[in-house]
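input
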Amino acid sequence: MGAIPTQRETVSRVREAPAHDEAPAPAHEVAGAYAQGHATLPGSPLAPGSARALVRAAVDEWTDCGLLEPGQRIAEDAMVVVSELVTNAVVHAGTDVEVEWWLEETRQETAFVVEVTDRHPSRAPRDHPGETPYETPEYGRGLRLVASLAESWGVTYRIGAKTVWARLTGRGGTLPDEQELKVAEILAPEPPAHASAPERGCPRRSDRDRDWLDRGALSFLAEASDLLAGQLDENLVAALTGQLIVPRLADWCAVWLEDESTVRPGGHGDASGAGGPRLARVWHGSENRIEDLRRALEKDPPCATGGLRSGPEPYPWPGEALGGPQGAVGSALAYRLIAGGRPLGTLVIGRLGPAGFPDEITGLVEDFGRRVALAIGAARQYARQATISAVLQRGLLPGAVAEIPGMRSALVYEPCDKGGPSGDFYDLFPAGDGRWCFAVGDVQGKGPEAAVVIGLARPWLRLLAREGYRVADVLDRLNQLLLDDATEAADAAARALVAAGGRAVPPGDGPQTRFLSLLYGELTPLEGGGVRCTLASAGHPLPLLLGPGGEVRTAARPQTLLGVVEDETYTSETIELGPGDSLLCVTDGVTERRSGSRQFDDGDGLARALAGCTGLSAELIAERIRRLVHEFGGGQPEDDLALLVLQAE
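output
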């Protein structure tokens, strides 16, 4: 149930729109659609969610292209209709499902058309009124909802297949209750509100339970798994758990979380409370009951008696917190949240009335609890990895940037992946004898491999600089160091291959090529004012020098990447920075920032941007370039970004 269904085929393309005076073909026979997509999905409960995701991505793309107006109702209606048609096909056919969708444009309007095809033509699409008392009704909201939203719809029977199609124009009918659908309702419909507490225990509630299970349980677990898996914070997982359960499955619920590193056998911490469960979330159908319920539950944390059994176990009913006599009768159940053989917390659900929970509900919550536990475990693993990465990242970068007499410096550093080591790095440090050195580098790739290269390069740069090596000599030796390290890694991989009996090394386990682009320089303040700068670029974007009058020129020449060519000899250039001169050093996250097919540095875009910074301080230059790079792409950067501005005073 928790696995994502294999999507064997997905096609999405946009064609030229037809002329407005063309007559529209019947909805289910259109062949000239100018924007369309297609997917084949397995007939599993996960198919509706996958279909919605694909159609949502297509609608977003069409909106970006200007084919649909932002916020147009047809887009939201399409999500609902696609979900209903795919759900109907999964339930009543059980075969693979083909989904096709496209846009039609006529003189009057734009229409969205969807076709859902299954391989069981003998079974007609069903709706609630067609079910007999002797059958187990399994359906979503039914084709009545499709009929309410669609301008037209129908069924086409072919040899070996059946297709249900719908055409939406945004002018279709309204929902039966005259209300807009909400996202939570798409996930699983909520039961009707109850008039009073005694009614909650009457047989009518059992009928509503059965009706909800029949209508919503088919996709509830699959869709809930998808929602939970997208959360990277355990507290957000707990909050989402409450929203999913109440009021669909219970009148209230609570989530306790345990620190798995200090949890004691039996589910409790020590006498001081260390390692005990923490009440992370309380949810009630009536918001004015939440605080009273929280205070009552905090006094009585769950005590697991079944070891690593997920439950359910009886839990004391907090009657006083639920409104005195009206809330005095009810039942509560506790489910241990266990993942990977470790207890992560406890989920407690409660329901008013003497009837308690039917077996179908308790079983569904137990399955749901397993998914909650997996989501909590994944969130904790992500948090641990993020912490490790942050510590590693701090170790790869200088704790502070050195201040240089007669110069001002400004730095912008924005790693693209906040959860892992960046491939970009920088440094600015004193090298002794009145010299300061700077470096801006970019390692091929990211993650651990990039961290290894930065962990080699940055300490060696400092060591060689402080030993008095010239700029070109530093690059020569660093190039050889990377090549030697790559050779050692290859030898180790070869030995591992021999030890494995000649079996192939799994992808990613072999030696990785370690290339490094680097801009490295040495700064020496001059007695009469200004700064002498000796620098070299090895496969790196060239530095730009901005003069006080707005003139911009490159300050180095291109040379080979480090770690590529054996015995490569590097050279350096020397320039003088007079008062007001500014040197801009960047990584390719700046120059190669994309907007469609264009890059930021196309047509000397970076030089033009720098020329517009004439008269600004180092800090303002750095901030303006950063802002221009972000505005150029429009979205989040897809690469790490680092830039250093050095300005002579």
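quick obs: The longest helix spans residues 359-396.
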